[in-house]
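User: I'll paste a sequence; please echo it back and then give the predicted structure.

Assistant: Echoing your sequence first, then the prediction.
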Amino acid sequence: MERVQDGNPKITRRTFLKGVLVGSAASLAGVSFWPSFSFAQQPIKIGVSLPLTGDFAIAGRKHRDGYLLWAKLINKDRKRWLLGRPVEIIVQDNRSDTEVAVAQTERFINVDRVDLLLGTFSSKINFSTSAIAEQNQMVYPIPSGGALRIWERGYRYIFYFQQNAVEYIGETPVQMLVGYRNLGVIKPGDFPKTAGVVHADELFGNAIATGLMGEKVRIPGTDRVIDLAPGFLKKAGIEVVFRQKYPEGFTDWLTLANTIKSKNPEFLLAATASPDEAIQLVRALQTVGYQPKALYMSQGTQIEFKEALGNAAEGIFIHSSWHPVVQYVGLLAGERYSNQQFIEDFRKEYGRDPDEDEAIPFAVCQGIEQAVRAMDTTNNQRLRAWLATRTKDNPVRTILGNFYWDKRGLPIGRFYLMQQWQRGKLEFIWPLGEFPGTKRLIYPKPRWR
């Protein structure tokens, strides 16, 4: 794609890039998605820095696919265009590196002059990139980055498209077990009495552990301290007998697994930063023969998790924001667009089933699209005002359900879903009976085979 600089960028040639061009940090290589027909109108340019390689690559590539599917559906028909213009999504590979992501975000704003920004994957990266967006008063919708350190800084242009801050994620798997005990599915004598908490030493993993343990959250740049005592495990009467965090780039999974086995917690909760870490930890636990009654992983809804682990995934449960059986209905191009339609369109485009790492960014695009159509502009100040004034009766409508936000940009009235790998399928297990297709929890976890 070439541009002639004469004060305002003009498009002189359009090139279709199907692959992801990974270059140096200086070149900031990426992919630019364009519609398949010519047009006179300049596109609405949207910038997104994603981890297409590196530690977060599995989730990052899936986020890209979710974003690009929305763009393809909008550009498919001129009647769907935004403000009478097609959309161009410029994707850059930040290689799972925060400094690269920051540089790319600054470039989007100051060089590419994008109209809109989309958030990236991971609390670690979003913490820094959201600061750049805030400084430039650009709306920054975040698909995956819920640590309270992001949301308690008093920012006005950030909006979260999952259920709640990361520190509160741990409440869902713990309360699910309590709920199944109350229903008689888990006998009182079989309810786990002890727990182990393992987590990555980064924003996401630390945040989940903080909620589970009931610790304090100190917000950088402020004097604010949020006390999460007594913690979700203690509140449920479960004693923590083991806790360990591991550094970024950790590889000694067998030693960690043997340490966990020596403490033998009945319920293990693992807050890994990426699906790959979750895979490595499960393999190590299987190797050493540790047999918990219940195993929760913060990552593992991806098909790659099941493909890598096979039968070892059986019985593992994971929180999520999306599931294919959930019958939410959102909007696309001003018309009703259901979760089931999303699944069909995704299969047609990519030849496989989607998971939540593709559904969440698609929902982000639905939200921003609704703001642009409602305000008839890409002016970010006006878009921010519209999003901030959504209510329960007048929300943003997406395939993840309805969204409206508090002053921090966190959703109001949302709950996490729980899923479990059962006989090779990721089944929706909590809230029980909330939607058609709910399966019962398998408990205790089947022994490794």
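Residues 1-29 have pLDDT under 50 and may be disordered. The chain is about 35% helix and 20% strand.
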